[in-house]
Amino acid sequence: MYLSPETILFIREHRNDDVHSLALQAKRYPQVDMPLAIVQIAGWQATVSKIPSWHATEGLLYPRHLSLEQCSSEVTALYKASLVHGEGLVDLTGGFGIDCAFLATQFKTVTYIERQEELCELAMHNFPLLGLKHIRVQNGDGVEYLQQMPAVDCIFLDPARRNEHGGKTVAISDCEP
């Protein structure tokens, strides 16, 4: 994901502004990739209370709304991380990477697996900014990776709770992967 210098400056100058109003002003800023800027501003705003330590980290990139909506809060991720530790962890349902990032502080080697290429790109960008250089990011299917993965101390799974039509799912059998 490439952000031009103009788009980066626009995001910094407008990150406290209403994204709906900004979207209506797109023609005033032809040098700005407005759809991308809106996603980044909305993401930054959403992390204020949900993921405060990430909100305070300059340079992070954010996904579209649904991935932020479905990701764990910092409080929840910290709780999960307090329950486990060991040598190796694999997160087979990486998502935006919140759980993986907090769990990674308890493990020496970490592998993040995610089907969506865009989320993998964000993870590769964000993890080093968060001081998590020991996480290996892999774009792929967690179920397929499970068939050939090396032994680890912990396998983390938090599947998407949406069906192929975008509707919410409740039964675990309806979740992917």
TrEMBL record:
What's a Pfam family this protein contains? PCMT
Keyword Metal-binding in the entry? The reply is: no
GO BP terms: methylation
Q: Nucleotide-binding among the record's keywords?
A: no
* InterPro entries xref list: SAM-dependent_MTases_sf
Could you tell me the keywords of this UniProt record?
Methyltransferase, Transferase
Please name the GO terms that the record assigns under molecular function.
methyltransferase activity
Q: What is this protein called?
A: O-methyltransferase
Please tell me the species this chain comes from: Bacteroides fragilis str. 3998T(B)3
